[in-house]
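Can you give me the bound-state structure? Components:
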Amino acid sequence: MRNSFEKTRASRALLLVFVCLLLLLFVSFSTSVSAQADNDSDTPADSILALAAPAPVTDLKAFDTDNDHGHSITIEWTLSADDGAGANSVISYEIMRWEPFVRDSVMAARDSLGWVQARINKFEKEIPLAEESLDEVLTGQPVLDSLSFLVAYDEKDTSFVLTSEYVDKTLRDTIAVMQRDLPVLKVRAPLLPARFDSLLILLPKEYGKYPDAIIGRFDSVGTAVSGATSHENSSAVDSRSMGFIPDLIDYYYRIDVQTSNPNIRTSSETVGPVQSSGQWFNSGLVPVLIAILIFTILTMIFVQLAKKGMDLYVRPLAGIEAVDEAIGRATEMGRPILYVLGLGSAADIATIASFTILGRVAKKVAEYQTELNVPCYDPIVMAVAQEVVKSAFIDAGRPEAYKDDIVHFITNSQFAYVGAVNGIILRDLPATNVYMGKFFAESLILAETGAVAGSIQIAGTDEIPQIPFFFVACDYTLIGEELFAASAYLGREPQLLGSLKAQDYAKAVLLASAIIGIILINIFPETGETFKSWFEVID
Amino acid sequence: MKRQLPLILVFVFGTLMVIQYFVPHENSEIVKGFLLDWIVIIGIFALALGLWSLVQVSVAKINSRKENWEYPLVTLISLTVMIFFGFTSHAENASWWGYFLAITVFLVALWMFLQGFMGQAANRNMKLLGGLGLLIVFSLLAIFDNSWEFKFYTAEGLTNQMFVHFFDYIMIPLQATMFALLAFFITSASYRAFRARNLLATLLLISALIVMLRFTPGPWGEYLAKTSAWVMNVPNLAAQRAIVIGIGLGIVATALKVILGIERGYMGKG
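Here's the bound-state model for the whole set.
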């Protein structure tokens, strides 16, 4: 009995302690929550409300963007005093341009143009489909698939039953609406472009009427992050594109400094009028123009000197000297020569250089009566290459040996082309493979297959990433400019050799400029910077 | 004049494009866009020439029964089937038999025509007549079979189930397979390049090892990364720049030679 009494007392004491602990926890939790609430009252929500209006930007300037096609205004400003300093409350700058209300009409007219045409297309396509579906309904065929574009119902509503009566009525209603609207839209469609054009003519005049608030307002045309001091407000040339700004009309700009509270912002003063216009010369490309002129003059001088009989030394190019040897080898072995022009188009300079080399190779092939195979990736390249090979055979005095299937088209798909050429290499086992032109990911696949087939391989490309692959897998590689020099080396014509000499002298000038620049920038930094600026191109 | 006219055209349009590069005005861009559109137009006509070349070479190989003559046959069938499916669409829930019968009749008709035009002289007229007969059968199928129809002017042909399946499940995997070969070829090429046969090859091997091991963890990783960055940014970049300058000058020189009519290799005249 005593024991049970003591147990009861102990239980009650434990219960009391437990309740006290609970109370303690509750009190501490309440205290912490209230403290949290106190802390929260000091946080951003209040501080946002308490933000002071930031200082406006200063020195705002708007001017026509240099060296462009027009339709672009550059805006520059000095940062707000509260951007990165002061209250440090600036998060961005909103660029505002004064817009006449008529611009809204222009946009609406443009949207109508697209919308009406889209509706006409849709109705013309869907009326026959809907009529067909109606026939299906009437003949009791399943129609759900063909109706999916017309009948929308809530899938979650399991009580909904797509009865044939409902489908029949919906279809009839839809067809009736479309047939009613289609003629109206067709009458309206031709009138819209004229309306759009008339508004577009009116728009420029309205831009210049600032600050008449009755006919316009400031609209956001872009945002710059805090710390930025310039923005380019530009648009496409196409007058029907979004945001199009016409040339040679007056624009007015201001900058709104934005804070984390959208309601607290400060506007700058308005600048304007400013007009955009296209330039007829890109002054940022002056160094390129001078370089081209110097190079052209050098080329002309050396071509003339070469014509007069001046002896011009050209260092031997192992890859090109190996061509004759390789053709001789193919003749001896009775195997064909494979000439690959690469994946470039006929407009690529590397492909043009390759045509010249192909002409020389084809001439030798015709003389030695060897077989030549030229699989092409581009049909235009194929047409040009056929002409080149045909002329080479005529020049060699063997026009009858030319066949149309020497130069043939394979495919315009990169890896399908690789598969076909690899097949030719492995089936025909050509004695010599020549790869000249533009090559990409296929370079190593082709060259390694050629190496496996045991062919002598000569490659040349101006694609720098592919040069190491050819270097590893081919017997001879023309590196970069050697591809362009090859035609002159093969021909030995004075005019072509003259241009090679001009290239060498141009390289010497560039090398000397680089050395002078390095010296100046290290010893006289200011002069060095000026010297460097002569070579800077701004495109 | 046959030689002079192309040279004059090249000079005029070449010079025009050089001038256009320095003129940013929108009128200049319009001229450039107009001229570049011609490349697309010429390309479309040239594609027809290319296809004809492919057909010609393939038919000649098949007729001569040269070794591996089956491959051109597969090429021709694939070409025709893809063109056929690209320009036709199949009606939903309709039978496929009519569609497949039509393509088979079309293929046989085309083959008889090709044999009639390009094959051996024997029975040439018979082949042409046979091809014509089959073409009439094909036309009747096209008119009376509602399970498929031609779609010449819309992109619906390109959504043709057969076209999409052939492209997605045959063409793309085959292309990916060819591209995947590159990994193995890079390995074999690396093995050949990195053999330390002489001093330069040994230097290449050491440089390659440094660049390859730069991401490895461990205390040496940081040093390898720094050394690798130096190898890539100093000697490698210096050599690359030299090549780039050479290529740039070579391109300008060749373009000048083409514009001035000094280089005539592209006209078949060296």
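A couple of observations. Chain A touches chain B through 95 residues (CB under 8 Å). The CA atoms of residues 56 and 80 of chain A lie 5 Å apart.
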